Amino acid sequence: MLLNKQISIIYFLKLIKWDIFAIFLYACLVGALDYFSFFKDLSIPFSISAMVGTLLSLLLAFRVAQSYERWWEARIIWGAIVNDSRTLIRQLIQFLPQVAEKNNIVKEFAVRQSVWCYALTEALRKCPSDKVEQYINEIGKDSQNRPNLLLSIHAERLADVSEQYDLNANKQVQLDNTIQRLTDSMGKCERIKNTIFPRAYSVLIHFLIYVLTTIFPFGLDDHHWIIEIALATAVPVLFITIERTAILMQDPFENKPTDTPMNALSATIERNLYEMSRLPAPEQKPQPDTFYMM
Predict the structure, then answer these.
(1) Res 288: pLDDT
(2) Structure-model confidence comparison of residues 281 and 53, the more confident one
(3) What pLDDT is recorded for position 182?
(4) What is the 3-state secondary structure (H, E, C) of 123-145?
(5) Over 90: is that where the pLDDT of 85 sits?
(6) What is the pTM of this model?
(7) How far apart are CA 100 and CA 163, in angstroms?
(8) Contact status, residue 100 vs residue 263, Cβ threshold 8 Å
(9) Rounded CA gap, 204 and 276, in Å?
(10) Cβ distance 83 to 117 under 8 Å?
(11) Please, what's the b/e burial string for 260-293 (b: 16 or more CB within 10 A of its CB; e: otherwise)?
(12) Chain-centre distance of CA 278, in angstroms?
């Protein structure tokens, strides 16, 4: 379900519709002007277009590779969050002594860890979450960085539990390491979110695409104007499509079709933690991750 999410063709065409329209209009204009003597005699060697196209291909290859690296890193980070969330609850179940309060403590951490996942999603996407808002109101605390607040509460409660039940140092270190890994994952997500891909790089690629669009028709055969217009439109549009794909992947936390499916992953974590702590199954609502799916 998480890996087979499809981008709507209509959604993608809406992103580049004005580029397609401008390129097609220009190709038709050049094709029409070829009937006049000045433009009919104007010819630009195809080797120049090939040189520009080669340079553009190299830049786009680098752009796509960097964008995919950011997207894949985000997915790896959330995979680690899934594992560490399960590990935290499993450690509490194993490490806490068999006392009457044990189940309540485990349930408390399971609920708070589930809310933390939704809070991190809320912070990254800037989309409010009812579950987070409800939990924050219940505990009577709030912060500009809610995920960090919930991890701090985790740490405070672990300190209290360790002191109350006299956990040995090795168990305390393992629990602290789990909290630390969750903190590291949160920081990595924030780094990706706040690191903007250089704008100058996009400007350069756009410039080269439109240079290619401008000179490409003058290197084509003028005897078949339909083929000339089709090629003069298709080749630049292919480059724009590749660039737009890279732009979609470079920001994996912007509530786009290529996003890391954070809501779906958070729901999976919630179900797993509730099951581990023997809580009633949480009520699941449709997640925004499926908004762009066909």
Answers:
(1) 54
(2) 53
(3) 97
(4) HHHCCCCHHHHHHHHHHCCCCCC
(5) yes
(6) 0.84
(7) 17
(8) no
(9) 52
(10) no
(11) bbbbbbbbbbbebbbebbebeeeeeeeebbeebe
(12) 32
Separation in Å, CA 230 to CA 28, 66, 118, 291: 9, 31, 48, 34
- Range from 15-19, 24-28, 217-221 carrying the lowest mean pLDDT: 217-221
| DSSP designation for 252 | T
What token pair was written down for 229?
Answer: 């217009």
Q: Which pair of structure tokens corresponds to residue 111?
A: 């609920």
CA atoms within 13 A on the CB side of 80: 18
Rounded to whole angstroms, how far apart are CA atoms 259 and 78? 12
Per-residue confidence (pLDDT) for residue 4, from 0 to 100? 45
Nearest of 69, 64, 75 to residue 189 by alpha carbon: 75
Instruction: Locate 211 and state its tokens.
Output: 């240079």
Residue 111 has a pLDDT of 96
Within 13 A of 166's CA, how many CA atoms are on the CB side? 0
Distance CA 23, CA 88 (A): 55
Span 202-221, pLDDT tens digits: 888 888 998 888 888 877 76
- Across residues 282-288, what is the average pLDDT? 62
Query: Alpha-carbon distance 257 to 8, whole Å?
Result: 8
What's the one-letter identity of residue 51?
M
User: Which pairs from 166-175 meet CB under 8 Å and 24+ separation?
Assistant: 167/95, 167/96, 171/91, 171/95, 174/91, 174/95, 175/88, 175/91, 175/92, 175/95
Residue 225 CB partners (closer than 8 Å, separation 6+): 31, 34
Cα–Cα distance, 82 to 91 (Å, whole number): 14
Instruction: For residue 182, give both structure tokens.
Output: 């969750």
Q: Is 28 exposed, middle or buried (0-12, 13-18, 19+ CB in 10 A)?
A: middle
Distance CA 21, CA 179 (A): 52
- The pLDDT value given to residue 48: 86
